[in-house]
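>> received
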Amino acid sequence: MANYFTSLKGFSRPFWVANTVELFERMAYYAIFIVLTLYLSNILGFNDVEASMISGLFSGGLYLLPMFSGAYADKIGFRQSMILAFSLLTVGYLGLGALPTFLESAGLVNYAGADTQFTGLIESSEKWLITPILLILMVGGSFIKSIISGSVARETTPENRAKGYGIFYMLVNIGAFTGKTVVDPLRTALGDKGYIWINYFSATMTCIALIAIVLFYKSTHTEGAGKSMKEIGQGFVRVLSNGRLLTLILIVTGFWMVQHQLYATMPKYVIRMAGDAAKPGWIANVNPLVVVLAVGTITQMMSKFKALTSIMVGMCLIPISALLMATGNLLGSATILGMSSITVMMILGIIVQGLAECFISPRYLEYFSFQAPKGEEGLYLGFSHLHSFLSSILGFGLSGFLLMKYCPDPKTFESHEAWAEASAHAHYIWFVFAGVGIVSAIALFIFSHVTASIDAKKELTTVEAEGE
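>> returned
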């Protein structure tokens, strides 16, 4: 252990500051994101479809914008970019907390009771004030996604870069885990009002990060030329014109559509089906825990196999995870280890989902990088996350429709019996996503065989040409 801590001394102060503020940013983000659909519905009165589409567009934008905000960050320098980013995030999170107070003062909603009592908010246009607030958060968050990982690259050497990114990845997951654990105690203590106060927690975390950047982040690696917006646009066109990469992006989108249900469907589903005592924050934490514990072993184990083989294993696991989640409702009111069957089967499904992610994510980036033209690996990898943009919009959008149809909000029914009848087939939601996973696995199988055949023909043609 002493040797391990000794090995950490070779990193600069800006490296540690950047990684520390990333931990605070992830705490803030995941505390909000795990309950964003609940906040939009229970606090602002959006229905399931509206809440899911707003959340999906917000998540998708966070994956699309870094390609452009990252280029701007290279121009103005990372320190200025981080100050801008954390300022926007702090303002945005404060806005999420203050908006319900404004709506209450306008007489549109009453949060005084144990349960939110809507008066005019559902029909009111004022609830759409959430849009500019989320845009502020989206822009601020997009800078973070590019500049923190970029800071790690700039503040490490080729000899310690792998260890540097290992520290980065560890702190990201610690932040994600910690942020989610704050949610359930607040919800238990304050009911729906906990979804309001969690925003002030997040604003505090990003404000601390902002102060740390101002006081302690002084890097000698200030600015870089970066790529112009025109070059990024040209790179985007080249990726979209590469049929092989575009097809793989679309196929992997199916996996991430299912994975995103950890945030799109699971929080509402477990609370509505297992009761208010359910703890979606703790349940969601199963995913990063599994990834941290298993990704190294799985990546090492699959290193002898082709990237597409590893991705295929993960693709075959993802429909199994969705089917396990569906099983909870099929077991009825049964309890397992003192917990509801809904909760237990959800946890088992998320464990399998986390293992699938371990097989897919590292090797997907590897495959993508090898398909990139020499010298453009960074640019192409920047676009490799287009699947997250697509899956956020599609996955969250589909979730909203499925929730309204198979697992509607109990508050919209006059009696528990009427709601129970309407939600009797709530497990159909997971059958749909299992179908998405199965289609994606079949598509990847076909893709693998077609590309292998094309590569074999090219290799044969090259050998014949050299023989002549």
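>> The beta strands are 109-110, 117-118, 335-336, 339-340.
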